[in-house]
Amino acid sequence: MQYKWAQLDLARQMESMDFIKEFITIMADAGYNGILLYLEDRVRTNSYPYPADSDCYTEAQMEELVAFAAKRDVEIVPCVATLGHAERFLAHPELEKLSELQGDMKGRFGWTKKQTFCPTHPEFYPFLTGYLKEVAALFPSKFFHAGLDEFWDYCLCERCRKAAPDFKAQQALFVKHIEKIHDCLAACGKRMMMWSDMFEYYPEAISRIPKDIIMVDWQYQEDVRGYLHHLFDCHVENRLEVNRKNGLDTFLGPVDMLYRNAQSYLEYAENKPYIGCLLTCWEKTDAFMYRTLPTFVYAGHLMSGKSEADATDAMMQQLFGTNDPVLTSAITLALTEGPWRHFRSIADSTLFARDFRGLPYANFEVDEASRRLLQNQSPLVKTELGRRILQDLITALDEKCASHGLARYFNFVLDGHAGDAKRFQALKAKFAEVLDTMDARWNLWRTGIAGNLFAAKKGELLEQLEKAHETLLSSRFVKVRVCVPDGYGVEHVRISLKFAEDGAWQVVADQILKPHELNTALSEHFLPYQAHQNPVAIRLEAYGMGGVGICFVEADGMTPKAITAMSGLVQSPEHLLRNDVNFAWFGSQSTAEAYFSKPLADTIHSVTLTL
After folding, report:
1. Which residues are bridge partners to 579 per DSSP?
2. Measured between alpha carbons, how far is residue 564 from residues 153, 377, 550, 560 in Å?
3. What is the pTM of this model?
């Protein structure tokens, strides 16, 4: 393999210069020959003076990193997002006019957050190309990554709709944008790279772009057995072959969140055309990089041609100074399960939901066993870096184990058992300890970096958890079983109750009913409501992109008797009357179809049931 690269996401979370240098050194020792710095707007230049000193890097600092890496035979490659993921640019009042969403406009997912550039704004390209040229000049590498993933709010403003009124024109505008960025970077002596996922939605565009652009195909499932589309309909294709047929080189793009992701992607791609592999990482605002360094190092040795066993041994020796088999097993188990992000385990959408077949007790046991083994074997670690990694991994497992305890307790009460305030407070205290530990670590491991999320959010998170417990003890619940085969749900479900024949509808919930686990298709959700009388009817409504299968619904144990009304597109509504896994499908079978059709996305698909 010619190019073996690791990514560092500095856009979502800045790291100290000392840590970045440490990361470069570790990656070089693991066999990597390139580091992709995901920057977005983190470099302040003459044409982009807006970020505060604490919110950016200087040009001199980037040049310092380039020189440091060059001594270790590692090239530094910049990445600046050039269409989507532009929220940091657009947060500055001076640049807000360049956003696709203006004022209170809502994007395709219902948000108003400005995070996509408008490619038809007359000031957009003069600004962006000027900035790209300044950033490109700082990096001797011949490569420059231009982002171009996930620009969901594309062609929505009045100017863009006029310039690209139909799908064919929108696809042409995408190609034109790629050509403009390509020409700018080529003039700087750079070979353009980009994420390939948006060709899933604009498939004809890939045949019309310059042939020297490198596609980076990212796949973040634990076991890569094929290229899966990332949001819509889970379409399966051989993207590496698509790139080859269109004369384009490919990088594989696994992620650090799952230990076996890179391994399985490399196995899948064996004897297929690709020139490099980029191990990506994202969004470490509520985590530290140390916990996934073993994944980076293991993947680096795999990229260099080592076997699974030899790569594991090399990783252990490099990071921990030992290949003790028990410690090795504990580390690989913990990382195969995957550290969590974004405090997802205490969100209402997690605490009041579960897989249809119940809680994953096997996963709970693996996390608990990994934690005990890591604690017991920690004296064997011989390096200071290894001790930091182990501390971070154990804390990650502390959070997971506390979360598992919360899941067990909440589901115990949801199934009709009495609440236990003492048990809840003990679990909440464990979560608070994790936050305190991470707060203290921030000051040690991110010295001088602003934005300590653990200190800022501790009170809010614990209050959120307390409110969830109050809801658990004081509410009645609508229980609904849904089927969402896509990895991510994007169809909203609104559930309303009526408490008298001539009464008004009261909305209980209006949300996406999809668990955080990508592999969970069938799930049950408990939606709270407050009432002193029993409901007589329930209304299920779905709207947005794609569809959702609803298998069954009941309100505080009251089951539906009959269907009394229906509108929109609902297939097999009779399944709602049976407590099983057969589902009524609300909306289109194709998420992509509704993505490109606002009238279809706005259509409300509804069924009313008597209880």
Report:
1. none
2. 38, 63, 17, 11
3. 0.96
In this structure, the dihedral spanned by the alpha carbons of residues 297, 302, 306 and 309, taken in order and rounded to 10 degrees, is 70
What pLDDT digit, counting tens, does each position of 287-313 carry?
999 999 999 999 999 999 999 999 999
Rounded CA gap, 205 and 162, in Å? 20
How far apart, in whole angstroms, are the C-alpha atoms of residue 87 and residue 608? 40
Specify which residues 157 forms β-bridges with. Answer: none
Tens digit of pLDDT for each residue in 159-208? Answer: 999 999 999 999 999 999 999 999 999 999 999 999 999 999 999 999 99
User: Which among 358, 375, 367 has a CA at the least distance from the CA of 336?
Assistant: 367
Residue 199 phi/psi, 5-degree rounding, is -70, -10
Q: In Å, how far are 44, 45, 56, 58, 546 from 134, measured between CA atoms?
A: 10, 7, 15, 12, 41
The count of residues in the chain is 611
Tens digits of per-residue pLDDT, 214-263?
999 999 988 999 898 887 777 889 999 999 999 999 999 999 999 999 99
Q: Match 């080189």 to its residue by tokens.
A: 249
Gyration radius of the chain's alpha carbons: 25
Percentages (nearest 5) of helix, strand, coil residues in the chain: 45, 20, 40
